[in-house]
Each structure stands twice: as C-alpha cells, then as structure tokens.
Amino acid sequence: MHRIPEPELMLDDEQAHAYAQADFNDPNSLFMQRFASEFPQEQIAGYVLDLGCGAGDISRRFAQHYPQCTIHGVDGSRAMLKYGREMLAQYEALRQRIEFIEGYLPNATLPMAQYDVIISNSLLHHLAQPSVLWETIKLRAKPNSLIFIMDFMRPESFRQAEIMVQEYVGSEPSVLRRDFYNSLLAAYRIDEVVEQLKGFNLGYLKVHEVTDHHFVVMGKYLET
Ligand SMILES: C[S@@+](CC[C@H](N)C(=O)[O-])C[C@H]1O[C@@H](n2cnc3c(N)ncnc32)[C@H](O)[C@@H]1O
Predict the structure, then answer these.
(1) Among 110, 126, 134, 175, residue to substitute to test ligand 1 (most atoms within 8 Å of Cβ)
(2) Taking 80 as the threshold, does the pLDDT of residue 133 lie above it?
(3) What is the extent of the structural domain holding 134?
(4) Which of 22, 56, 164, 188 could join 192 via S-S bond, C-beta 3.0 to 4.6 A?
(5) What is the 198 CA–ligand 1 centroid distance (Å)?
(6) Cα angle, residue 88 at apex, residues 29 and 51 outer, rounded to 5°
(7) pLDDT band at 223; cut points 50, 70, 90
(8) What is the CATH number for 70?
(9) What per-residue confidence (pLDDT) applies to 41?
(10) Per the domain annotation, does 92 fall within a domain?
C-alpha cells in the first residue's frame, strides 16, 4: 500500500481538543518504558527537545520521570500547544521544567542550540518531508546526545488499517478515529525509515518494531 500523506500541522481546534482528551496511556507508557530500557546506564539529565510535542503528554511524562531534565516541547500548532499549556497549569511542580514553544520545523527558534536528549512521538508521519526530522536531529544533537523517536508503521492494506482503528481507538470520538486511520496511511514502513537514516548518515541508529503498528529509532548521536 502506498503512503498517503496527511496535513502536517494539527491546527483545527476540534481535532486538537479530541487529541488532548484521548487516552494515549498505552503508547505513551510504552514510549517511556522503551526509552528507559534503551538507556539503562545513562544518567538522564539536562535539556530535552520534544519535537512535535502536541498537547505535551510525552513532555509531561518525561519531566515527571526524569527530575533532572528540562523539557522544551516544540510544535507548529497553536491549538495543540494551548491544550499543552492548560495541562501544565495542573502540574505546578513541573512548570519550571517544561516550556512549550510554537515553531515550525525545521526553522523553529529554540532556546538552546543543542540538546542532551531529543525525543519525538508521532511527528515523522505528519511531515511532508521526512528529512525535516533527521535534519533537525543533526542540527540540534551533540556527540552522545540520546535520540529516541517513536512513530506509526504503515499497515499492509486499507483493511488492516480499518481493523487497527477498531481495535485501538474504536471507542474514541469519530474525529480521532479518522485521524488515527489517516495517520496509519501516512506512516512509513521500517525499510523506508532505514533508507532515510542511511541518507542522513544516521544509519547507526537502531530501528525496532515495538508493537504491530509502532517502531522506534534510538541510539546515541555520533558526529559523522
Ligand atoms: C500526532 S501529533 C503528536 C503529538 C505528541 N508528540 C504526542 O505524542 O502526543 C503530531 C504533532 O506534530 C506537529 N507537527 C507536524 N509537523 C510539524 C512541523 N513541521 N513543525 C512543528 N510541528 C509539527 C503537529 O502540529 C502535531 O501537534
């Protein structure tokens, strides 16, 4: 099945609201578990860049789990960031360590030139050019920065995508079911991601399938 792109930015308020309200506990917990198991010996500290942070659930989880980190979440959608900022208002203890920045990648203006950790969940499949993610990593990482990216894998067929919608978001509002379906169709296959990484001299990063519809790209950044 060919990839069918979807709009990059989630600008619509109804869409952003449905996303912010949805229960992403399973994939977002998996994100945190996999990050921890990939870097068990590392002291996770310093500045973290969350690319395409959306309504900020991963930024929040990261800040809670790693108290020595400051998180900069960047997203091009004001609507998504509005829900992120509302969420943050409920977590007084985290407010000093999370900053949400409105910015369109790859040209966003960020507070730091380079980051100790770069994370991203579900951004890659939104990008019109996947190079934006890999170029941003190359620009914003320094040697030994930790890189951890999770995204959807494109299913084999439309039918398979429909089955996954039923299985994973069957009880969510229709706007979210539609978004999930479109996201599955817009996602990359692992072999495509491996080719992208090679093209940016990032072929040393590991790519693992972690569920029937997610992969992760992870490793330490090496200057090449
Ligand atoms: C599916 S959401 C994921 C949000 C969040 N990472 C999460 O896991 O909940 C993808 C986000 O990427 C943002 N996005 C897409 N392309 C972007 C770009 N070029 N620059 C900045 N943000 C972008 C969208 O606005 C959207 O909020």
Answers:
(1) 126
(2) yes
(3) 13-220
(4) 188
(5) 24
(6) 60
(7) confident
(8) 3.40.50.150
(9) 86
(10) yes
